[in-house]
């Protein structure tokens, strides 16, 4: 019997090592897998490359990871926010490397990794600073920039319901990067509000098929960090 | 002359959004456009974090922080709306499915180049979000901004000095003084606030302006 | 009020013109929009370019369209089947052009069109006849072939439930190419077993958001051609 | 010596599929492998037309023709299975998520090139389906075929003469006479049927063969 459910967040992240690349779901705090990140912080490993849309908000999640000094590099689209002070400080101190990627390129590059493409010609960023030094090509009269896939050793994502085969559904806009990160990482770890018995999710409404998920850990919302 | 205030600017943009349009309103000023869309027409607001059919803010105390917009504000979902992941969301823009996006700007050039993501100042931390995707992806990109900076410099320019967001992507510019069309043919004036002449506007804007066909004052 | 529902299949396809490119959903007969195709045949237009996984099965759907002599070119992955005699005859007579595309490249090129990519480096087909004359590139030690998006003027697809805004769900393996074709065509026409009131589809389980669908026509399964 | 029949070949392949594996069984002969997978273990069968967790054929009269496999046969869905669209389905292969695919072949070369989609004969109508994607996408590609053609020619070859499906993609070849490993180091024999010697096999196969480490007869 295959059972991908883990007993705890700590057990789920126990093999994430120093220097790993880690995709983290979430757009702002919606979909941010706070408890998995807390477990990662508790593990004490550092030198991480983080892929997330933002560079942390407030004091939880990616912000807490940055505050703890565990992040060597972040790949994101929107680091500068009113509550991104932990990133700001580390960045200004030269302690964290930033690869700024337009949000659509970020999504497309993650999706390309999951789908096994070698590279994609994307319309976004042509003629801008963010395409400097990159190969460009005119195709059917339109200009494109060549971008490469972003893959990762791990993905930490927050879903809504999961089962022991790793099938997942999401809740509202907490879905965001979860489905595509699950496809792009070698090992995807999902925290879910509820693990249901096999068959508890209608096969028509599975958003992430279990093949893309290696571990599932139940973090009941009652225990979850308030995500305001 | 009477400059439009931000609410009036938002109402003016809203007037140009037809029923059935799929629209993304950028964070900041453009978000206000939603308040002026007719409630008796189906206009579909998209938010790049994965929802279509975005409704107004929830009542105080009824926020669901897993139902937010691109500005991370709590929103609601209209009946008939739906959720999707980020790759599908950006496919909506980049694949040309979105009819209109409305963005703020630091500068727009007369040929439609947009600069709105980065001041280029040393020490500034850049952040781009979905601006570049929206700018070049939507069928029409509208800009909404005050015509002049606080220092009185025109933000409608011959050529942007700020780092670009996208090339030749803006079609209309809605300002507190006038509405412009921009593009390969340069800038033309669609309408001006009462009491402003084309000559005066030209003086303020500092770029060559034509009156658009059917322009009104 | 926006209402994308159409009164009939005939009305839904009334502006498909001679020489149009038309994506048609379905894998074999599952998901084949038979009634929309019948309406297209009845319209009498020809010289069509058809994009479908197969080149028709038996006597219905794409096979009927080919039999009627309306197809100038077909882009597909698997034309030769035990029941593809209408295609076989036209092909051998030199009356139909075939662009053979590996199934994964077909899906990826359709998805690329919907997502606005200019081209993709795909791993499939490298070193084979189907990549002859195409640009190749080694990326991270692996070989890729450059493939371009496939878009179309129309997509005819079969979904399960739909609403007046064009939101769709599918049924079992009839889903196949529907969601990606809907994204890749200028005008997507979906036949659905049932049109439900707005809100009748849970927003979490919409598979194709209405933005990708221009017309919906209800064809109750009782009236549908048996799809065996 | 006793050649394996097709059922025995299918059973032999099934023995090498571990619990938890995500597996695609090609149309034709490989489909038979499903009949020999242990029913007390979770093995996930994928069908490229959009299902994971494929179950056995339904009872006669209970076919649902919207629930079919890649060979267009009616199938069932196991509890815990799910549906998805074609791009996600092929992402499973091409993105390296599928552990094993089992394919038939016209020829396999000793370095693992596969030819299984096209005879190359003039007048033949080619059809490729998902073969090229499976061949190069799965972590391991197994081939299942009779070693010799009806004319007695070896289908394990130095270099394929039929049009290729994929380069250096096959890792194991299961035949009626022996199981081979193929790859950069050439072909080696993992096991042979009773009563067959390596010399005899070598003679039939017509390509250089080594005994694999731990090979058994």
TrEMBL record, chains A, C:
<dbReference type="Pfam" id="PF01144">
    <property type="entry name" value="CoA_trans"/>
</dbReference>
<dbReference type="InterPro" id="IPR037171">
    <property type="entry name" value="NagB/RpiA_transferase-like"/>
</dbReference>
<dbReference type="InterPro" id="IPR012792">
    <property type="entry name" value="3-oxoacid_CoA-transf_A"/>
</dbReference>
<dbReference type="InterPro" id="IPR004163">
    <property type="entry name" value="CoA_transf_BS"/>
</dbReference>
<keyword id="KW-0614">Plasmid</keyword>
<dbReference type="InterPro" id="IPR004165">
    <property type="entry name" value="CoA_trans_fam_I"/>
</dbReference>
<dbReference type="GO" id="GO:0008410">
    <property type="term" value="F:CoA-transferase activity"/>
</dbReference>
<protein>
    <submittedName>
        <fullName>3-oxoacid CoA-transferase subunit A</fullName>
    </submittedName>
</protein>
<comment type="similarity">
    <text>Belongs to the 3-oxoacid CoA-transferase subunit A family.</text>
</comment>
<keyword id="KW-0808">Transferase</keyword>
From TrEMBL, chains B, D:
<dbReference type="InterPro" id="IPR012791">
    <property type="entry name" value="3-oxoacid_CoA-transf_B"/>
</dbReference>
<keyword id="KW-0614">Plasmid</keyword>
<dbReference type="InterPro" id="IPR004164">
    <property type="entry name" value="CoA_transf_AS"/>
</dbReference>
<keyword id="KW-0808">Transferase</keyword>
<dbReference type="Pfam" id="PF01144">
    <property type="entry name" value="CoA_trans"/>
</dbReference>
<dbReference type="InterPro" id="IPR004165">
    <property type="entry name" value="CoA_trans_fam_I"/>
</dbReference>
<comment type="similarity">
    <text>Belongs to the 3-oxoacid CoA-transferase subunit B family.</text>
</comment>
<dbReference type="GO" id="GO:0008410">
    <property type="term" value="F:CoA-transferase activity"/>
</dbReference>
<protein>
    <submittedName>
        <fullName>CoA transferase subunit B</fullName>
    </submittedName>
</protein>
<dbReference type="InterPro" id="IPR037171">
    <property type="entry name" value="NagB/RpiA_transferase-like"/>
</dbReference>
């Amino acid at each position: 019997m295959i059972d991908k459910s883990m007993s705890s967040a700590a057990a789920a992240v126990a093999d994430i090592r120093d220097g790993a690349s880690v995709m983290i779901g979430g757009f702002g705090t919606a979909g941010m897998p706070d408890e998995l990140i807390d477990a990662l912080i508790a593990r004490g490993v550092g030198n991480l490359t983080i892929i997330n849309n933002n560079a942390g908000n407030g004091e939880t999640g990616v912000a807490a990871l940055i505050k703890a000094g565990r992040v060597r590099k972040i790949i994101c689209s929107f680091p500068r926010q009113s509550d991104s002070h932990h990133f700001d400080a580390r960045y200004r101190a030269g302690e964290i490397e930033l690869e700024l990627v337009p949000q659509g390129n970020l999504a497309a590059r993650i999706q390309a990794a999951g789908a096994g493409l070698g590279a994609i010609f994307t319309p976004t960023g042509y003629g801008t600073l963010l395409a400097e030094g990159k190969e460009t090509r005119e195709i059917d009269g339109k200009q494109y920039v060549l971008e490469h896939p972003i893959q990762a050793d791990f993905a930490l994502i927050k879903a809504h319901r999961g089962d022991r085969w790793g099938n997942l559904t999401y809740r509202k806009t907490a879905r965001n990067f979860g489905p595509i990160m699950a496809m792009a990482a070698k090992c995807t770890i999902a925290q879910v509000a509820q693990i249901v018995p096999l068959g508890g999710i209608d096969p028509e409404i599975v958003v992430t098929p279990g093949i893309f998920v290696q571990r599932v850990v139940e973090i009941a919302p009652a225990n979850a960090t308030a995500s305001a | 002359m009477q400059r439009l205030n931000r609410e009036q600017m938002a109402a003016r943009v809203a007037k140009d959004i037809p029923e059935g349009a799929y629209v993304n309103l950028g964070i900041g000023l453009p978000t206000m456009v939603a308040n002026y869309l007719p409630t008796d027409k189906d206009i579909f607001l998209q938010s790049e974090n994965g929802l279509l059919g975005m409704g107004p803010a929830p009542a105080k105390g009824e926020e669901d922080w897993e139902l937010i917009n691109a500005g991370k504000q709590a929103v609601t979902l209209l009946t008939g709306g739906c959720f999707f992941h980020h790759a599908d969301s950006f496919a909506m823009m980049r694949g040309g499915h979105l009819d209109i996006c409305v963005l703020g700007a630091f500068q727009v050039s007369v040929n439609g180049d947009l600069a709105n993501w980065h001041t280029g100042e040393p020490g500034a931390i850049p952040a781009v979000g979905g601006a570049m995707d929206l700018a070049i992806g939507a069928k029409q990109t509208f800009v909404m901004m005050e015509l002049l900076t606080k220092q009185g410099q025109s933000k409608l320019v011959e050529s942007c000095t700020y780092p670009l967001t996208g090339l030749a992507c803006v079609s209309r510019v809605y300002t507190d003084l006038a509405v412009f069309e921009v593009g390969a043919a340069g800038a033309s004036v669609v309408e001006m606030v009462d009491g402003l002449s084309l000559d005066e506007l030209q003086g303020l804007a500092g770029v060559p302006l034509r009156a658009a066909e059917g322009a009104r004052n």
